[in-house]
From TrEMBL:
Gene Ontology terms for molecular function: actin filament binding; ATP binding; cytoskeletal motor activity
Keyword Nucleotide-binding: yes
The protein, known as: MYSS protein
Keywords: Actin-binding, ATP-binding, Coiled coil, Motor protein, Myosin, Nucleotide-binding
The gene coding this protein: Myss_0
Family: Belongs to the TRAFAC class myosin-kinesin ATPase superfamily. Myosin family.
Short name of any one Pfam family annotated for the protein: Myosin_N
Length: 93
């Protein structure tokens, strides 16, 4: 039995619990730069994805959907989205 068929028992909730095999493969092949991909604290969304634009004198400029912020947190690669064992993640916040 494939991993996707195992999730059938969860019905409509399955897509929220685990990505499909196709989505997991796509995430593993998605370009990711651990040195520039970060999470930024956001007042409404908790955290949003961002990309470091520059580093200067201990100050970091980050581009996000919400604009520039100053508190940044390292981001895990896309292959860890909806991972079942959080011990495998590189960064926990």
């Amino acid at each position: 039995a494939s991993a996707d068929s195992e999730m059938a028992v969860f019905g409509e909730a399955a897509p929220y619990l685990r990505k499909s095999e196709k989505e997991r493969i796509a995430a593993q092949n998605k370009p990711f730069d651990a040195k520039t991909s970060v999470f930024v604290a956001h007042p409404k969304e908790s955290f949003v994805k961002g990309t470091i634009q520059s580093r200067e004198s201990g100050k970091v400029t980050v581009k996000t959907e919400a604009g520039e912020e100053d508190q940044v947190f390292a981001m895990n690669p896309p292959k860890y989205d909806k991972i079942e064992d959080m011990a495998m993640m590189t960064h926990l916040h």
